[in-house]
Automatic annotation (TrEMBL):
Domain of life: Bacteria
Gene3D superfamilies documented for this protein: 2.40.30.170, 2.40.420.20, 2.40.50.100, Helix hairpin bin
Organism the protein comes from: Limnobacter humi
Record PROSITE patterns: PROKAR_LIPOPROTEIN
Keyword Signal in record: yes
Record's protein name: Efflux RND transporter periplasmic adaptor subunit
Every CusB-like beta-barrel domain range: 201-276
Length: 355
């Protein structure tokens, strides 16, 4: 063989040798690359919660007993000793009318009563002398009874010409000013009783009210201080629907001592959550971010196997509660689901779990 013919063969052999040598050591590097490219995900363990969805409704804070104070008789307001926001003590005198007109009415009624007594006394004497008939004497007795009632009414009116606090509380509203003429029954002050407690009032639909019982636990939160919750308890539940709205009123008593540094005010807007009756059983709950696909009745997510591989699983949806999904059928205790990074996974893929 001549020298010029052997050159291509040597070049080919050399190229194959280099190719084989290059392929040989690359296998361990490929395996290492595969091991280090496993997707990093975050997981959460399936939690347990109530079997029924909590009832979430908007509510308004108020004192349980809020009383509008008014005079039984009309007149000119002589004095009001309190203003909005003032605290009051039991039996504290808050306002009164000018007594001149009231005293005149009392004097008139008293004078009428004295006259009726004298008339009856004289009538009894005349009857004993048979000067008047028994019917006329009965009329005099009736006149005395009427005069006694008028005197009693005048005396009571004088008492109701003053307003006093029945219990310790706070002035929520002042409707009138000194010197104003008010009619009988016209509101002058609105008082909130501290002794009655502070409540949140809300309205429930029939589907919600049927699952609520007096004594159930609840939590309240006010928009003015988001993130802060107050323990509460259902103390009142209407047994008939409001004719105008078709809803059922509910009141929960708020434990104001749970956050003693915060001052709750009547009229504050907030949210009320009541746990339905009969929810002693528990369901599996998974975070909403774990769902990769779903509809109203079913959802799909990835569970993590013991070898860190993922399995695409279909679950039935019971209801959505906040940022969690309640499942109709419980998952095994300790099941882990991918909460972050599930959107890019494939069934059976091995993942790396972030700490």
């Amino acid at each position: 063989m001549n020298r010029s013919a052997s050159l291509p063969l040597m070049s080919t052999a050399l190229g194959l040798g280099l190719l084989l040598s290059a392929c040989g050591p690359s296998k361990p590097d490929a395996e290492a690359a595969t091991a280090t490219t496993a997707r990093v995900v975050k997981v959460q363990t399936v939690s347990l919660g109530p079997s029924q969805a909590a009832i979430d409704v908007a509510g308004v804070g108020a004192f349980r007993d809020e009383t509008k104070l008014s005079f039984k008789v009309g007149g000119v307001i002589e004095q009001i000793t309190v203003r909005e926001g003032d605290s009051v003590k039991p039996n504290q005198k808050l306002a009164w009318l000018n007594q001149q007109e009231v005293n005149a009415a009392v004097s008139q009624a008293t004078a009428g009563l004295d006259k009726a007594r004298r008339d009856l006394q004289r009538g009894e004497q005349l009857r004993s002398e048979e000067v008047i008939s028994s019917v006329q004497l009965d009329n005099l007795k009736t006149a005395l009874q009427v005069a006694q009632a008028q005197a009693s009414q005048a005396s009571f009116s004088r008492q109701t010409a003053e307003l006093s606090a029945r219990a310790a509380g706070v002035v929520l509203k002042r409707f009138a000013q000194v010197g104003e003429v008010v009619a009988p029954g016209q509101p002058v002050l609105l008082l909130g009783s501290r002794a009655s407690g502070f409540v949140m009032k809300a309205s429930l639909s029939d589907r919600q009210a049927i699952h609520v019982r007096v004594g159930q636990t609840a939590t309240a939160q006010f928009d003015a201080v988001p993130g802060i919750q107050w323990p509460a308890k259902v103390i009142e539940l209407a047994q008939a629907a409001d004719p105008a709205t078709g809803t059922y009123g509910v009141q929960v008593l708020i434990d104001t001592q749970a956050n003693p540094t915060l001052n709750v005010l009547s009229g504050m807007q907030g949210q009320l959550r009541i746990q339905p009756a009969g929810s002693s059983e528990q369901r599996s709950y998974v975070p909403l971010e774990a769902v990769i696909e779903g509809d109203n009745k079913a959802a799909w997510l990835f569970t993590v196997e013991p070898n860190n591989s993922v399995k695409r699983r279909a679950v039935k949806v019971a209801f959505v509660q906040g940022n969690r999904l309640a499942l109709a059928e419980n998952l095994p205790e300790g099941t882990r689901v991918v909460s972050v990074g599930a959107a890019y996974l494939q069934d059976g893929e091995t993942v790396q779990i972030a700490e």
